[in-house]
Design brief:
Strand content: 15-25%
Structural class: alpha/beta
Low-confidence stretches: 1-29
Number of strands: 15
Radius of gyration: 25 Å
Largest sheet: 8 strands, mixed
Length: 446
């Protein structure tokens, strides 16, 4: 018998031999972590009421039970927030995590290396999470930076909120979502970067964003404030193009968010079926009626309007942007107040990136000053925003089965909404990131 035959015989014997009692058993999964949070006052955002002395039981990353009659499980880690008002983690439905206004509003794309935007996003994602925002919708980012950042956060590489990512914003050639004002021999943006003219290109642009991971489609229905070469109120995409975008997105189970300042562009976008109007600076009675009839959300971004108008007065904007910022300022205030009075559905959104990240919660103050009650302002950033994002089964309320996203402040934000700018406690998915007003260091893989 040769060496190969002997080896074959030995392997066969080993495979056929009965397993002995000493064989190692499979390793057991670690026990699920159980946390019980004692909440002095809990805001039930679904019902719009306050619950006194509630207990939230967290198992792993989800809420297992919540209520005033819930018992603390034996062996659970107890977090005492009995001196706090406890709420669901906030949702900002309009952010640009890779945006940073500290260097001004020049076009960073021309002098930043590929990948730099995602690194900027890492910094801003952490600030956003520590401010109490556990979920955001990022409505427009170059180089797929928001999608890369979303995946890095989901994989536990860096801390940050859950991200509903848009990838590139969609717009017309020379419009608000394009790069304008530069010499014509520089590289142009095309369909793959969201620039589309006509129905066929609009359809292709949606499909391209979906192919590479976009969770939501963002379009520019009208001109904007910070862009060069366009009037702030003019309609850009045609209604036919917007209908094609909405229809194509729906076939991929995606919603459409429409940047829209001007009245006619707002109404065309609403008729086309978009889920939300972003900014909505120039609403009229017909636009408000259409939004109410169709259930279209307004995402008002009050902070962006106020911040950019202030920058215009301080001489920090290019002349064309400064003119547009001051032109639209009063219209935006009046439109928001009119939408609140009429009962338009409103979801919290700030346009963070136009102003520094981490300051998002000052939007609550501006919403209350514009006519909302403190309870409705909080609900706009929880209950309503979750529904706009299509994530109401996961986030937006302190309910059994949802992610354990919890924020808390000392005092009563229903009496003083400004307290929300100083959250004392932040939990996302059962992991504590802030406690006693201080950041908690979390292992990268947790």
């Amino acid at each position: 018998m040769n060496a190969r035959s002997l080896l074959t015989l030995a392997l066969s014997a080993a495979l056929l031999a009965p397993r002995t009692a000493t064989a190692q058993a499979p390793a057991q999964a670690p026990a699920e972590r159980v946390i019980a949070i004692r909440a002095g006052r809990l805001i039930d955002v679904d019902a719009g009421r306050v619950v006194e002395n509630a207990v939230i039981v967290v198992r792993g990353e989800r809420i297992a039970a919540v209520g005033p009659d819930v018992a603390v499980p034996a062996g659970a880690e107890v977090i005492d927030l009995s001196g706090h008002t406890v709420m669901p983690g906030f949702i900002d439905a309009h952010t640009h995590l890779d945006g940073d206004p500290s260097g001004g509003y020049s076009d960073h794309r021309l002098h930043e290396w590929p990948g730099y935007a995602a690194i900027v996003g890492v910094k801003n994602a952490r600030k956003t999470l520590l401010a109490g925002f556990t979920t955001v919708r990022n409505v427009g980012s170059d180089e797929w930076a928001d999608i890369a950042l979303r995946d890095a956060i989901e994989n536990g590489l860096v801390p940050g909120p859950r991200i509903v990512a848009a990838g590139y914003s969609l717009g017309i050639t020379g419009g608000h979502c394009d790069t304008n004002g530069f010499r014509p021999d520089l590289p142009e943006r095309g369909v793959e970067q969201g620039i589309a003219d006509g129905v066929e290109e609009a359809i292709a642009a949606v499909r391209h964003q979906v192919k590479y991971g976009a969770d939501v489609i963002k379009i520019c229905a009208t001109g904007g404030v910070l862009s060069a070469g366009d009037a702030v109120g003019v309609q850009q995409f045609t209604e036919e193009e917007m209908r094609a975008i909405v229809r194509t997105a729906a076939m991929a189970d995606r919603k459409v968010a429409a940047h829209a300042h001007g009245t006619e562009g707002i109404k065309a976008a609403v008729r086309a079926g978009v889920a939300s109007i972003e900014h909505g600076a120039m609403l009229d009675e017909e636009a408000i009626r259409l939004m109410k009839e169709r259930g279209t959300y307004l995402v008002p971004t009050r902070m962006a309007f106020e911040y950019v108008a202030q920058a215009a007065r301080q001489g920090k904007l290019a002349p064309w942007s400064a003119t547009k910022a001051l032109e639209v300022e009063d219209h935006a205030r009046a439109s928001f107040a009119a939408a609140v009075r009429a009962g338009v559905k409103i979801a919290f959104g700030t346009d963070a990136g136009v102003f520094p990240h981490g300051e998002n919660a000052d939007e609550f103050r501006l919403m209350v000053e514009g006519g909302m009650t403190p309870m409705e302002a909080i609900r706009s950033a929880t209950h309503h925003a979750a529904r706009l994002l299509g994530r109401e089964v996961d986030v937006g309320s302190l309910t059994a089965g949802r992610y354990a996203d919890v924020v808390a402040v000392r005092g009563d934000p229903l009496a003083d909404i400004r307290l929300l700018r100083r959250v004392d406690f932040v939990m996302k998915g059962g992991v504590v990131y802030k406690r006693g007003g201080e950041e908690v260091q979390v292992a990268a893989d947790q």
